[in-house]
Specification:
mainly alpha; 8 helices; 0% strand
Length: 192
């Protein structure tokens, strides 16, 4: 039963789809910046090319040789300083640090995943126009009723006023989703 519950939860969780939508939306936002970067590179390219042309090759070779000598000297210093006993302790310490760092990165990755999924959910709502529906719902809830509150209503009228004449689209979608989940649950139960 636990496997079926896990499977049901996995198949009905929209977060991965929201993550994909958020990733796509962020990619589009970044792609909009590309023309500006191309113009910037186009403007800077002649000066950079000229600087490379004017560089003396002997200076570059001397700097490369100096860097190579410094690396060789450091490597020889490290080889002479290796103590086998300390090396084992250091390896163990580094392994423990690595586990801690990996756990930290896993937490950060989950936070980033959740943020991108939240951004994707907002993007999907915007694409669907649901944001405007929510704003209208909020405005209706905040707006005072136009009826005169001083007139008492009969019990029958108040019951009629409390019952919605027509469901809102969001309520219908929620009901449809619940019905679909119930149907899927019943169908999954029949197959077992």
């Amino acid at each position: 039963m636990a496997i079926a519950d896990d499977l049901k939860k996995t198949l009905t969780d929209p977060t991965p789809l929201y993550f994909a939508a958020g990733t796509a939306d962020l990619a589009v936002q970044q792609a909009k910046k590309v023309p500006g970067l191309i113009e910037q590179l186009r403007a800077e390219a002649p000066a950079r090319i000229e600087a490379v042309k004017n560089t003396d090759p002997k200076i570059v070779q001397d700097k490369a040789r100096e860097a190579q000598e410094a690396v060789t000297a450091k490597f020889a210093e490290v080889l002479t300083a290796i103590d086998p006993k300390k090396l084992g302790e250091t390896a163990q310490d580094l392994a423990l640090r690595g586990v801690g760092v990996a756990a930290e990165y896993a937490v950060r990755a989950k936070e980033t995943y959740d943020k991108v999924a939240e951004h994707g959910e907002q993007a999907v709502r915007t694409w669907r126009g649901e944001v405007s529906e929510e704003i209208v719902d909020i405005a209706v809830a905040v707006e005072p009723k136009s009826e005169d509150a001083s007139q008492p209503q009969s019990a029958q009228e108040s019951d009629a006023a409390d019952a919605p004449a027509e469901e809102k689209p969001a309520a219908r979608r929620g009901a449809a989703r619940k019905n679909n989940v119930k149907k899927a649950t019943v169908a999954a139960g029949d197959e077992s």
